[in-house]
Structure formats: C-alpha cells, structure tokens
Specification:
This protein is mostly helical. Helix content is 60%, strand content 11%. The protein has a single domain, classed as Arc Repressor Mutant, subunit A, CATH 1.10.10.10. InterPro entries: WH-like_DNA-bd_sf (IPR036388), WH_DNA-bd_sf (IPR036390).
Length: 107
C-alpha cells in the first residue's frame, strides 16, 4: 500500500515538475530525490513512459540537452484534478484539528 501511494504521489510530482520546466530524466530523478523519493534514472524511466502512454507527457529532443519531457494539455487537466483531490484530502485530515499555536487541553 505504501509503495502504491508513493507511486501515485511521484506521478503528481513529475507532472508538476514537467509543468514548471522541460526536464530530462536525470533532472526529474534529481527533483524526486530532493523531495525524499528513493529513485534513480532506471526507476523514473518506466514512470515517464507510463505518463506518456496515458497522454500526460510528451518528449522532444532539445539540442545540447537531449530528450526532455513536457506536460500536455491532458497532463495539465490531470494535474489540476490531482491537486484538487490532494487539497480535499488535506482538508479532511485537518478538519477539527486545533490551530498549530493552540495546545490541546488535557482532562
């Protein structure tokens, strides 16, 4: 279950990164590493291939850089839907929680 959740979360991160900047496999792997994902180029490639097959990413060759991945319009829609689901989950998880500067009272 944890692996599946992390895989879904990695998909959202990759879509977000591809929105921000055309990125190579190595750049995307580095970005994921920065956010605590235990990945390497070999584990990122299948994810990118799957996102391409689903129509969320496209790849193009750039002179001097190599193959970069870009978010498609369909990918933008998926990213927006994923953001909404994450926001909804965040709100549900924090509903009724005391503010961070409040100390819960003990009985």
């Amino acid at each position: 279950m944890k692996r599946q959740f992390l895989g879904l979360l990695a998909r959202v991160y990759v879509l977000q990164f591809a929105l921000e900047v055309p990125a190579t496999v190595a750049m995307l792997a580095d970005m994921l590493l920065e956010y605590g994902f235990q990945v390497d180029i070999g584990s990122v490639r299948p994810l990118l291939r799957a996102l391409q097959m689903e129509g969320y990413l496209e790849s193009v060759l750039r002179d001097g850089i190599g193959r970069v991945y870009l978010l498609t319009e369909r990918g933008r829609e998926e990213l927006q839907a994923s953001r909404q689901r994450i926001d909804d989950l965040y709100r549900r998880l924090h509903a009724g929680q005391p503010a961070t500067d409040e100390v819960p009272q003990q009985a």
